[in-house]
Amino acid sequence: MLEKYIVNWLLFSNIFFLFYLLIYSTYILIANLVGSISMYRFRRLEQLHNELNDSFYYPMSIIVPAYNENTTVIQTVRNLLRLDYKLYEIIIVDDGSTDNTKELILEEFKLNLDSDRPIRYQVPCKKIHEIWTGKVNGISVMLICKENGKCKADATNAAINMVSYPYFVCMDADEVLQKDALTYAARAIMTKGEVIAVGGNVKISNNVAFRDAMPASARLGKNLVVDMQVLEYSRAFVGARIFHNISNTNLIISGGFGVFKKSAVVEVGGYDTKSMGEDMEITMKLHQYYRKHKLPYHMEYEPDSVCWTQAPATISDLRRQRERWHCGLMQNIWKYRNMAFNPRYGLVGLFMIPFMIFFELFASFFIIIGWFNIVVSFLIHQINLPYVLYVMAAYMMLGIVMTVTVFIDKMNMKNDYFSGFDIAKAFLIAFLDAILIRPLLFLIEFRVFFKYKKLKGKWVSPKRVKVEEI
């Protein structure tokens, strides 16, 4: 009797697992196909209109939260001062750093203490102690020194209280914002009415050399962890983001680079300082607010608006990053659970959040259960092992081909300088990713469910290095 129940369970779960993989593969295939077609259309438009009409622009405030970022913050701000944009300001937030971040900024940019500057707390944040201001090459630069809020969200909220312009950019202190990034973000805002957010294209800066805030050369390196993330970011930012852009269902405007309408963010109360995934949280909160109140809005994705970020270069740093990401995913799905399967929230509630639940949040559970069932089925002689291995190999090869295809599309984008040799190397990296790194990430995500309370609120930044400039 017990064996009968086991056989029935294995049959049911294996059929479920097969359909699970089929649905996910179909989604990835369609998303990448739509992304590739869209990128081709973008390039055709660039050929027809090789110059953007820069008579129209939106003044923007660039927010750079910094906590113990003395290694990279000066280089980041220098590159921001090279942006090709008519009107913007730079706001650096020293979130109670214990190193010499503040002193380096003051020395480099010659800012002056602005004791009379009024502070209007429109969104909550820890107390602001000092404000320093000045002009650098005609660009307004502000340094906010505040009590440590122990998260990027609190530092960003402090800057939102001080921004002068209707749109603000949220980024990190170790990044290179490409010289033309704001121009393309402004184009995305102009394409549709009521644009409250624009997500940019985040790329990996490891192994990239820059000249005047633009990539001069790029290559796949010798670090498998970094190279895997280069391919992973290509899948995410060229395929999935473009696909979801069509239906206005992107659930994450990346914290690495996003443009937001200040009034919209203030209206929903700013960033949640208790969230470990503040970028996803603010995006879902905006979706919820605008759909609940039946207000017209768009959250755009602009692949030509590019920001370059440092990827974790070690397994330990990657593990900490992905633990934080998965904790943030768990928090946000639970916080906005009332939106799931709710037609009131349109495709966001009926499709996107359920997709995130089944194919992101619980993916590690399903994968591990699938592997367990295969082992048990083999032990009790209830499986056609050659057939299963064939299906698994076909699924893996499909993933590798789609990953490399998107990477090739990425190479055809403007300002990407990967060589033809990198295509062959990408196949090897995608294969190693599928058999080594990807299973490891599934195990990391699986462990998060049992370590959530311990990890909650823990935020450790990876080691920073300066980007290469020529």
Description:
The chain has 470 residues and is an alpha/beta fold. 52% of the residues lie in helices and 17% in strands. The protein has 13 helices and 13 strands. The chain has helices spanning 2-48, 73-80, 101-109, 152-160, 181-191, 224-246, 262-267, 278-292, 315-335, 346-361, 363-379, 385-411, 420-455; strands spanning 60-66, 88-94, 112-113, 128-136, 139-146, 167-171, 176-177, 195-204, 208-211, 214-218, 257-261, 298-309, 468-469. The strands form 2 sheets. A 10-stranded mixed β-sheet has the order 3-4-5-2-1-6-11-8-12-7, sandwiched between helices. Strand 1 (60-66), helix 2 and strand 2 form a beta-alpha-beta unit. It starts with a helix and ends with a strand. Residues 48-52 have low confidence and may be disordered.
Structural class comes to: alpha/beta
Tally of extended strands?
13
Shape: globular
pLDDT averaged residue by residue: 86
Uncertain runs = 48-52
Strand content: 15-25%
SSE succession = HEHEHEEEHEEHEEEHEHHEHHHHHE
Largest sheet, order of strands side by side? 3-4-5-2-1-6-11-8-12-7
Cα distance, first to last residue?
A: 72 Å
Summed up, the helix count is 13
- Percent of residues in helices comes to 40-55%
Q: How many domain regions? A: 2
- What is the radius of gyration computed over CA atoms, rounded to a whole number of angstroms? 23 Å
Largest sheet: 10 strands, mixed
